[in-house]
Design a protein that fits this description.
Largest sheet: 7 strands, mixed
Radius of gyration: 20 Å
Number of helices: 14
Distance between the termini: 36 Å
Pfam families: Polysacc_deac_1
Number of domains: 1
InterPro entries: Glyco_hydro/deAcase_b/a-brl, NODB_dom
Protein name: Polysaccharide deacetylase
CATH superfamily: Glycoside hydrolase/deacetylase
CATH class: Alpha Beta
Shape: globular
Helix content: 25-40%
GO biological process, one term: carbohydrate metabolic process
Structural class: alpha/beta
CATH topology: TIM Barrel
GO molecular function: hydrolase activity, acting on carbon-nitrogen (but not peptide) bonds
């Protein structure tokens, strides 16, 4: 029996994919990676953004920077102390060293600096360098910790503040957004639709990370309950650095090897970085990751360009359920991409 006559059946979380053997092996010929950079804090904006730009430019990697634009209330995150897994994460990721004492006091013993107002020039420099820019949030702490308790009008107000500040800085409305901590619900998705965004990234691929089948969709229209939303979504598919740091099974000098192993699945991936980590203490680790990726033949792709291409035929884009779930290495629940519906 010829190999070309074989049939492969691939089952994954988001549905069933059937391909012939030639197509199957072709799936592994290319590896594509999109970089999404969340900028959470005032310090991350001032000190972490420029190193990330330089590293991306060095390796010819496109990236999207999503900015927090309002008050830096990072210090208020201490209220998460009673959340399961939070203290463990704080200890293993060395939060005090990575974020700095001043950042950890912002919004408590120190006034919360207005990130967009203080760092408009830095943000514009990102766009001027050719990178895509978008909205992360107005108040990172408030959105991540209280979104599900906030009424629609309050969410609208927070997003409107971010959108207004973004437009004031960049002289154009935002085309993309990604929520803090992947906190998303039907009210926030309604607001995205009303804002006429090109794309958003509020969801995670479910763990374990290594089980993702070829051509499982990273781009989809989200559905919650009976409502399908109109804004194209890209899921973060790889573990973030803070989900791996300080764990015995992922020593620091093996993290990049592990991530490259996931990329070798031969599927499209979206990797979320943080200016406060990969832009500061772990900049050399990020530099090494991109060098390894290039050596393996990984192609970097831009999410805005990808969205424009996909949206040329909306009927071909799958609809996937979105539910609240947990991700290995992260405390609390967040929005997780589910099955094709």
């Amino acid at each position: 029996m010829s190999v070309s006559g074989l049939k492969f059946e691939l089952n994954c979380v988001v549905g069933e994919v059937s391909v012939d053997s030639a197509s199957f092996f072709a799936l592994f010929e290319g590896m594509r990676l999109a970089l999404k950079i969340d900028v959470d804090t005032d310090r991350g904006t001032r000190e972490g953004v420029e190193p990330l730009m330089r590293i991306c430019e060095k390796h010819g990697a496109s990236a999207t920077f999503l900015f927090s634009l309002g008050p830096d209330n990072t210090g208020k995150a201490i209220r998460r102390i009673f959340r399961p897994g939070f203290l463990q994460k704080v200890r293993r990721t060395n939060v005090a060293e990575n974020y700095g004492l001043r950042t950890l006091l912002n919004g408590t013993l120190l006034p919360a600096p207005k990130i967009g107002k203080r760092n408009a020039d830095t943000m514009r420099a990102v766009q001027d360098a050719g990178f895509a820019v978008g909205i992360h949030c107005w108040d990172h702490f408030k959105w991540q910790d209280y979104l599900h308790k906030m009424r629609l009008e309050r969410i609208q107000m927070d997003y409107a503040r971010a959108a207004w500040t973004f437009e004031e800085i960049f002289d154009a409305p935002a085309r993309c957004a990604g929520a803090p901590g992947w906190q998303s619900n039907e009210r926030s998705l309604d607001i995205y639709d009303a804002a006429n965004l090109l794309w958003a990234s509020d969801t995670r691929w479910p763990t374990p990370w290594a089980t993702r089948a070829p051509r499982a969709p990273i781009a989809f229209f989200p559905r919650i309950g009976e409502t399908t939303f109109e804004t194209l979504h890209f899921s973060t598919t790889l573990p973030t650095l803070d989900e791996l740091l300080g764990r015995e099974e992922y020593p620091d000098d093996e993290i990049n090897r592990y991530l490259i192993g996931l990329l070798k699945q031969g599927v499209d991936h979206v990797h979320t970085l943080h200016a406060e980590l990969e832009g500061l203490h772990y900049a050399s680790l990020f530099d090494d990751l991109l060098a390894r990726a290039k050596a393996e033949g990984v192609e970097f792709f831009d999410l805005t360009t990808e969205a424009e291409t996909l949206l040329a035929d909306r009927s071909a884009i799958p609809v996937c359920a979105v539910h609240q779930g947990v991700i290995d290495g992260r405390s609390g629940e967040l929005a997780v991409q589910g099955a094709v519906v």
